[in-house]
# Entry
Amino acid sequence: MTQKKKLKIGVVGIGHLGSYHLQKYAKIDSCEITAVSDTQPDKAMKAAELYACPGFSDHRALIGKVDAVSIAVPTGFHHAVARDFLAAGIDVLIEKPICSTVEEADDLLALAEKNKLVFQVGFVERFNPAVMALDKVITRPVFIEVHRLHPFFERGTDVDVILDLMIHDLDIILKFVHSPLTNVEAVGVPILSDKIDISNVRLSFACGCIANITASRISAKTMQKLRFFGPEGYHAVDTRKREILSLTKITNGEGKQQIVQNNIEVGSHDPLEEEIRAFVEAVQTRCAPPVTGEDGRRALALAVEILQKMKTHEDIQL
# Structure
């Protein structure tokens, strides 16, 4: 029996996330890391030595050496880097957000469709075991409360907290609320960076669902919780602890209503590894990935609308 040819993988951007991508690819038997790239040559060379492959400071040097690539560069470079690979016929997994602008996202989507390529966006929270377990119980949410609070780190401040943190929750909300958006209210202010560091957003949907979202990267402690309320009950997801509490209203044998806890099995897998494996499977089977470029574009469009709403509050002085 002939051995199946391994998928040749490249990673562009060997920072915090790019390094983790390399670790996950290295665990997949059907993959071979064949090239890496970073604009800082020392980072590229260090990764190249660790994974026994060539390292480059120019991402375009990977073209012809890889079948698929992970892109983990700063958001402002997403469009230019991804476009080079998509134009060369190379499948792409790009970290969130998909791009800086909706126009850039549309350009990449058109190119991926034209060349019939796999184009996945790295919303790792979609692969969180607790979020995946939510699929088993949620039906029609009518109110959603979200808190994503993090301490301040310099990493990620090339974009505001909406594109840095909140966009994860925007993507999850859009996944579970299948209804057009009717109104957006938003406030946000910069505190420790020159971009918005804390924000509160209220989304209204045509179905009547309301989502209230708070995102901060200047908090004393970390909190990552989503709470869904609907006719069938209450579901609280802690993405940091990877736990879900689900309560349902039932009618007992005496005809009285009571609240019971659902026994929901939550997986123990690593979300990023699950995301990487999903991308590899999509590339190998030529099927749509679980988180498509269209999903990334939709979350970005909502984030952009939120930022536009915040401009009406620019006169706020701290």
Remarks:
- The two ends are 69 Å apart (CA to CA).
- Residues 224 and 239 are 6 Å apart (CA to CA).
- The mean pLDDT is 93.
